[in-house]
Design a protein that fits this description.
single chain, alpha/beta, Peroxisomal Thiolase, Chain A, domain 1, 8-stranded mixed β-sheet, 11 helices, 12 strands, about 30% helix, binds oxa(dethia)-CoA
């Protein structure tokens, strides 16, 4: 399909840029212990560390243990975010899960997370918008807070893509990884600048997809559940889509690209990120990357990168931060917010994170 198809609907710009009485109060991440390096992959498929690093920027990725699932990893990331936010699970009004690799067709991982955390008051549901899932879940959460319906919402992106990757296909297995990231979003007194845009072109569904057990009747070949992708097509789409969505989100907030202090793009491929940043005119120090250590973790990629940007001291009060993503659907979108400081990580949560590989 020609790239000009990916223009999506005309973004409706507000005359007065939106502010939202909400802030991120806590950030969490979880990465499974097992690390698979490019050298490990050299033993599995015909590839090389040099090719993978050159074409994708990925050096290694984490892979879940047999007893880990999207929901168990989400619980660990969520605990860290809740500890930082000093929010008790019982104070949560809503949990939104974002995943393309759920524990099952149903229930939603959000329900399993709700149970795992003991967040008995919270409503729970999942969103599947592939790699734009976390962004879509975050924007949805923000609207519940904006409307005054809920005060505290947990948004968690979690993936075990290793279970839907064909480990004999060098075109895809080098790209993906497992992990989880979470944020606690809570109502705030002050209205913070905020905007988001989302697009979809279902005409490109066959360019990036994974079938499921309901895709076709009869006994399916388990291989049909693997991620399938037209890599070069997605590459071109991604760069154009992320540039477009970023420009629209900043424009919707009454700002320009020059006002972006930190871009946090979906971590799919370093070349896609670099090309997008170049088209936007953003220098590397204003663009967050960690794809080298985790590969593409789909719904988990932006909350993981956000958490690490905070750990690296790259987020300051008042910074304009843009999240931008693209994925199977095809879908793409961006979200702009103004950074409000989060509290320090309590020592107990730091220790738990160290034990579970969740960082400091
Ligand atoms: O969340 C969204 C998920 N998807 C993406 O973001 C994917 C976007 N696309 C990409 O990242 C890139 O297209 C890839 C990394 C998947 C592939 O890179 P490319 O530069 O587009 O390579 P290509 O597919 O055009 O293949 C070039 C060559 C081919 O060999 P021939 O036909 O030129 O002999 C491939 O067979 O590279 C070969 N190749 C590999 N060689 C070594 C493909 N994968 C590998 C590999 N190791 N792992």
């Amino acid at each position: 399909m020609h790239l000009s198809c990916y223009t999506g609907a005309q973004t409706k710009l507000l005359e007065t840029p939106l502010t939202i009485p909400a802030r991120i109060a806590g950030l969490g991440k979880y990465l499974p212990e097992r690390v698979v390096t490019n050298f490990d992959l050299e033993k599995m498929v015909e590839t090389s560390d040099a090719w993978i690093r050159d074409r994708t920027g990925v050096r290694e990725r984490h892979v879940a243990a047999d007893d880990e699932t999207a929901s168990t990893m989400a619980v660990l990331a969520a605990r860290q975010a809740l500890a930082q936010a000093e929010v008790d699970p019982m104070e949560l009004d809503l949990i939104i899960g974002a995943t393309t690799s759920p524990d099952g067709m149903f229930p939603a991982i959000a329900s399993l997370v709700q149970h795992g955390l003991g967040a008995r008051r919270a409503a729970a549901f999942d969103i599947n918008a592939a790699c734009v899932g976390f962004l879509t879940a975050f924007a949805t959460a923000s609207q519940f807070i904006l409307s005054g319906t809920y005060q505290r919402v947990l948004v968690v992106g979690s993936e075990v893509l290793s279970r839907i990757v064909d480990w004999s296909d060098r075109g895809t297995c080098v790209l993906f990884g497992d992990g989880a990231g979470a944020v606690v979003l809570e109502a705030a007194k002050r209205g913070e600048p905020f905007s988001f845009v989302f697009h979809s072109d279902g005409g490109g569904a066959d360019k990036l997809f994974a079938h499921g057990p309901c895709s076709q009747p009869g006994e399916a070949d388990p291989g049909c559940y693997f991620i399938q992708m037209d890599g070069p097509h997605i590459f071109k789409f991604a760069v154009q889509a992320m540039e477009q969505a970023t420009r629209e989100a900043v424009q919707a907030a009454g700002l320009t690209v020059d006002d972006i202090d930190l871009l946090i793009p979906h971590q799919a491929n370093l070349r896609i990120i670099d090309a997008t940043a170049k088209r936007l005119g953003l220098p590397p120090e204003r663009c967050m990357t960690n794809v080298d250590r985790y590969g593409n973790t789909s719904s988990a990629s932006i909350p993981l990168a956000l958490r690490e940007a905070w750990e690296q001291g790259r987020l300051h009060e008042g910074d304009r931060v843009v999240f931008v993503a693209f994925g199977g659907g095809l879908v793409w979108g961006a979200l702009l917010l103004e950074w409000a400081p989060v509290g320090p990580v309590p020592a107990a949560a730091r220790e738990a994170a160290r034990v579970t590989g969740g960082g400091s």
